Amino acid sequence: xxxxxxxxxxKPFISEEEINAIAPEIEAAAKTLREGTGKGSDMRGxxxxxxxxxxxxxxxxxxxxxxxxxxxxxxxxxxxxxxxxGARAVVEFLGSSRYNQLRRGTPEIYFSGCNISGSDLEELxxxxxxxxxxxxxxxxxxxxxxxxxxxxxxxxxxxxxxxTDGARERIFxxxxxxxxxxxQFSDEAGYETFVVPDDVGGxxxxxxxxxxxxxxxxxxxxxxxxxxxxxxxxxxxAEGIENNDAYKYAAIRNILYRKGKCVEILVGYxxxxxxxxxxxxxxxxxxxxxDGKGLYPSSVIFxxxxxxxxxxIQSGKRTMFETxxxxxxxxxxxxxxxxxxxxxxxxxxAGMKMSDVNKTAMNGTLLAHVDGGVPNVVIRxxxxxxxxxGYMIYFFEFACAVSGYVLGVNPxxxxxxEAYKKNMxxxxxxxxxxxxxxxxxxxx
Length: 444
Ligand code: PA5
Prior knowledge:
The protein has 444 residues and is an alpha/beta fold. Helices cover 48% and strands 14% of the residues. The protein has 16 helices and 10 strands. A 5-stranded mixed sheet has the order 1-10-9-7-8, sandwiched between helices. It has a 5-stranded parallel sheet with strand order 3-2-4-5-6, with helices on both faces. Helix 13 (354-371) links the parallel strand 9 and strand 10. The longest helix is centred in the middle third of the chain and has 24 residues, at 145-168. It is globular. The mean pLDDT is 97. 5-phosphoarabinonic acid binds at residues 80-83, 139-141, 144, 147, 201-203, 286, 414, 417.
């Protein structure tokens, strides 16, 4: 089994009767999702994506990745939100949070266009100086300000270095198949384009060209990743809450929410999981946080954050529960060395694997947090392989959609994201926003 949901540390907080009582709601929500009778049903393309994807485009992604690897020291991925988080999560989960220092035979990869920081942009531009580089601009709408700004800069740098014709060979665009200024501009300029499927929203798009091109450039086998997701698709088609761990997870989340928990913390025990947590936060937060409802998704990496947020989780306001990500077969064999002086008193651990010490830290923390009144769900992932990660991505996407329907929201829209954009454009004086500009400026 690639993922096993362990509910042992939730049991002190949720009874069997509560699970049985919510089960029909979960099963009904899953039916709604599968049959496309719920809100946002036109955005369910991700549901069958692991099997139903464009094979010809998949081959083009591999060819483009090979070309980028051959011609680049540096690869700049330009996108924000769902247009970059999935790729970065996979690159770091399977490689390292230090991917750029440790990579073998693949380009350094940097993510730009995911903020409006001039300093960050200047740093990345300076990294490209004197190096061969390619860029991949990713924007479904093709109009998002942050990536559009970054694209201007990197395109100019490419054209300065390689000329217009040379730059054309180094610009790869992932966007809507027909709509948007980016698509129109790319076609006119002759850039190679990849498609964000119409029925796949940003935060569900990691297994489309959005995620797959940067992931392939990092050296990950994208067939394996898709294969893992396809495995999950088959396993999670099982009916009945007792047979389906995604159903169980959705049930536990909704029961705890109804009992007053308003924060879910995804807990990792490995630094390589940090960006995966960021991807998960967007998935959950943007899918469920609407209509005045939803769990606030947060994340920590232990034991690091036990020394910062551990105090609050152990004994602060009792509003949260934890979802712990446990990789059952760790990939590190590092052992604690013996030291004859034993000044630090650590010889009782000599010869023990670091991964076992880490697992013990996890078990100790689980017990302590449960004693402190924090329910803990444990997601037991078989290993850190590409296939298992593909499985886990699909697991969380599927559980998120089911959970959102149980909550009674449309898990596939994000109307709230527009509010800041409108204000920003009005305050920046964008044509068409004149009336709002005056009103907002008066309030500052
Ligand atoms: O999940 C989402 O839909 C968002 O996070 C988008 O991915 C993000 O806002 C970027 O949008 P776009 O790809 O249109 O530039």
